[in-house]
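Readers of this paper often ask what the protein records in our data store actually look like. The remainder of this section carries one protein's record, kept here as part of the documentation.

:::
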Amino acid sequence: MAYKKTRRRLVVTFTVLLLSVIVVAAGAFVLKQMAESRTVISQQILDQADFIIFYPGDTTKLDTVWQLQKDRTSYDKESGVLTLHALQASTGRQVVLNEQPTPGAFADVPTQYSRMLNTLNEYDELQIGFGTVALTRPKELNGGQSAVANKAGTLIFAKPSVNFTNEEWRDFFDSLRILR
C-alpha cells in the first residue's frame, strides 16, 4: 500500500515537473517571438507604415534561410511604400520587397488587380502556403522576374537578384512572417 502511494506521488511529481517545463519553454518561445518582431523594423518606420508588413524570417531549412537586412529598410512617406532587403547568406542571393497598402481600386474593381498582373506580363501563378503569388516578367526588367502578392491588405512586389525557380519562390514566400 505504501509502495503504491509513493509510486503515485512520483508519477504526479514527474507529470507536474514535465508540464512546468513545457509551459516555461512555450513562454520563452512566445517572448522571443515578441522581442524579435519588435526589433525587426524600426519603431519610426512602424509608426509611419500603417499596414500589415511581411518580412523574411529564418526557416528550418538551413540552406534557404532568408534574413532581413535591417540597415537597408526604408519607408517613403510620399508614396507609402516600404522597402525591405532580404539576403540568403549561404548563396548571396537577394530579394528586394516593396510593400504598400492594397489600393482601394482593387476592391472596388475586382478586375483591376488582374489587369495590373497582365501589364506586368504574368507568366505563372503559384498556390502556396503563403497564398497566391503571381510570377511576372515586366518589360522594364528585360527578362528579369518579379513576384506579386496581394495578402491581408498589403500589396507585395518581390524582385530577386537572379531569376528563381518556382520552388525557390515557394521557399522565399513561405519564409515570410507577419509583423502587426
Observations:
- The first strand starts at residue 53 and ends at 56.
